[in-house]
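Researcher: Here's a chain I'd like modeled. Treat it as a single chain, no partners, no ligands.
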Amino acid sequence: MVAEIKEDHRTVSAVMLCQKSQHPWADLNWSLLGLIPSLSETELQQAAEQGDVHYWSDLALQLYPLHCDAYYHNLVSQQPKVYLVCNQDEKNKPQPLLLTVDYDEAASYMETGEQVFNANLPVELCQWLEQFVLTHYQPEKPKKRRRENWHQGGQKT
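Model: Modeled as a single isolated chain. C-alpha cells:
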C-alpha cells in the first residue's frame, strides 16, 4: 500500500518591482510581479528595464484545511491570486510577513494597515491548490431553517 503524500506547503520566491512614483505624496511605487519559478527570464529582463527588481527567496506558502472555503473561492474566481503581506522598514522598503492564497486573511491584514500586494497565481500553484482543496474541502450541509411561531400558544389572536 502506498502512503498518501500530503503537501500543505511550498517554498517560493517573490519578485517585486520598485519604480519611481508619479504620485506627489510617494517617492516609490512597489508592485508584486509574481513568483519564481513561474516568471520567465524574458519577463524578469523586461521588469529590470522598468525599475529595480527585488527578490525575496524562501517564502513559505502554507495551506490549512480550515481555509479551504476561501481557497475554493480564489480558484473559481476569474483570475486566482496570491497575496504578499508586508510591513515597511525605515526606508519604506516592503518586508514580507506572509504569503497566502486566502483573500480573507489578506483582507484582515489590509484592515490593520499592512501593505498587501497581489499577483496572478501561477498555473502550477493553481493545480497544487486545486488538489489540496479536492482532498480537504467539505462544504457545509445546507440547514433547513424553521419558521418561528409568532403566535401565542400556536393560535392566531
